[in-house]
Specification:
Blueprint (H helix, E strand, L loop, with lengths): L2 H12 L11 H14 L22 E6 L5 E7 L6 E6 L11 H9 L2 E7 L14 H13 L9 E6 L1 H12 L5 E5 L5 H11 L11 H7 L4 H4 L13 E6 L7 H11 L6 E6 L17 H13 L6 H10 L3
Parallel strand pairs: 3-4, 3-5, 5-6, 6-7, 7-8
Antiparallel strand pairs: 1-2, 2-4
Length: 325
C-alpha cells in the first residue's frame, strides 16, 4: 500500500482535530487501518498528476511560503487578476485532487475576476509532514496572508474543497469568521461522525471496517470525538454554503449528505444544494475542465456571484471580457 494511502487514512480520521498527538503506535492500529482503507477506497479517476498553470492559459502562480500558528510551513499558490472581486481558496486533499488540479477552476475564476489560492494541506506535497491534524490552521495561514494584502481588503473569501477537502472547508468556516462562504463537494462533517453514521445506517454495499468508536478514539486525538459531532456545524452561523453530492457516491453515501444538509439548515438559511445522478465523487464530469459540465459550472459560478454582493451581476460580463489571460 502506498504511503499516500496511509496518510490519506490518518488525515480522514483526524481532519477535524486540532493540535493533538496520536496515542497509540502504528503497529497497534495496522489492522484497523487496513480495514478503514477499504471504507475509503479511491474512485477510478486519477487526480494525482501535477499540472502546469500555463497549460490552462494562466499566468505563472506566485508561490507563497507561509507558516501556520504552530510555525509549520504551508504552501499555497496565488493567481490574481487585475481587478479582483473576490477570493477562492481551493483545498487539496491527501491524494486527490492535487492543488494543481484546480487550475481549470482557477482559469474560470480568473475570467470572473476572482483571485484563486490553491493550497496543500498538512502532510500533502511540500507542506510539512511533522505536524498533523491541523489543516484548519493551514487554511487560516492563507487567510492571514490575504488580510495583509491591500488588494484584497474587504473582498469576500470563499473556501472550496472536495471530500476531505470539503470537510476542512466546512470546519474552517466554523472556526473562522474571515470566511464568507463555502463550496463543499462530497463532504462529511468528520470521519468519526461519518463512520458512526454509516456503521448504523449505511446501505449494505458500503463495506465498513470492523472497528469500534473506541478504536477511532484511540487512533484520533483526546478530544476528537467530542469536537467532531455533527452538532458542531452550528458554527456556520447563517453564512452561505453550497453542498454538492452524487446519489450513488461509493465513498460518501447520499444518505449522509441528506443528514448533513438537514443539520446545516438549522444554522444557515443560505444553504444551497446541487445533486447529480450516478457515482460522481468529484461532481463535475471532468474536474480538470469544469466549464465542460454546463450544469455544474452554472451552479458553481452562480453561487459565487450571489456571495459577492459588492459587485453588480451586470459587471461580471464586463470583467469576463476584460480579464486577459
Amino acid at each position: 500500500m502506498r504511503l499516500g494511502y496511509i496518510i490519506l487514512l490518518i488525515f480522514n480520521i483526524l481532519c477535524l482535530s486540532v493540535g493533538a498527538q496520536s496515542i497509540i503506535t502504528n503497529d497497534d492500529i495496522a489492522d484497523k487501518e487496513m480495514q478503514i482503507i477499504k471504507c475509503l477506497q479511491q474512485t477510478d479517476a486519477d487526480y494525482s498528476a501535477e499540472y502546469d498553470a500555463r497549460q490552462f492559459g494562466l499566468p505563472t502562480p506566485d508561490s507563497i511560503n507561509l507558516r501556520n500558528q504552530y510555525g509549520h510551513e504551508v504552501i499555497a499558490y496565488e493567481i490574481c487578476p487585475a481587478i479582483p472581486v473576490g477570493i477562492v481558496i481551493c483545498i487539496s486533499g491527501q491524494d486527490a485532487p492535487s492543488a494543481s488540479a484546480y487550475y481549470g477552476h482557477a482559469t474560470e475564476f480568473y475570467k470572473l475576476g476572482y483571485a484563486t489560492f490553491t493550497m496543500d494541506v498538512s502532510n500533502h506535497s511540500k507542506t510539512a509532514e511533522d505536524k498533523r491534524y491541523e489543516e484548519v490552521k493551514d487554511v487560516q495561514a492563507v487567510i492571514d496572508y490575504i488580510k495583509s494584502k491591500t488588494d484584497y481588503i474587504n473582498l469576500p473569501v470563499i473556501v472550496m474543497g472536495v471530500a476531505m477537502g470539503g470537510t476542512v472547508a466546512i470546519r474552517s468556516m466554523i472556526e473562522s469568521y474571515d470566511i464568507n462562504a463555502v463550496i463543499s463537494l462530497s463532504a462529511y462533517s468528520s470521519f468519526e461522525d461519518y463512520f458512526n453514521f454509516n456503521r448504523n445506517n449505511a446501505d449494505p454495499r458500503y463495506e465498513l471496517p470492523n472497528a469500534s468508536m473506541k478504536d477511532l478514539a484511540d487512533m484520533s486525538t483526546a478530544d476528537s470525538i467530542a469536537n467532531s459531532r455533527l452538532c458542531s456545524v452550528k458554527g456556520v452561523d447563517q453564512r452561505p454554503m453550497l453542498l454538492m453530492q452524487s446519489k450513488k457516491d461509493k465513498i460518501v453515501p447520499y444518505t449522509y449528505f441528506t443528514r448533513l444538509s438537514k443539520e446545516l439548515k438549522k444554522y444557515t438559511n443560505n444553504l444551497e444544494s446541487f445533486v447529480v445522478e450516478g457515482d460522481e465523487h468529484y461532481i463535475c464530469h471532468d474536474f480538470i475542465n469544469p466549464s465542460s459540465d454546463k450544469a455544474y459550472f452554472e451552479v458553481l459560478t452562480g453561487f459565487l456571484k450571489r456571495v459577492t454582493p459588492s459587485v453588480p451581476v451586470s459587471a461580471y460580463r464586463k470583467l469576463e471580457d476584460t480579464q486577459a489571460i
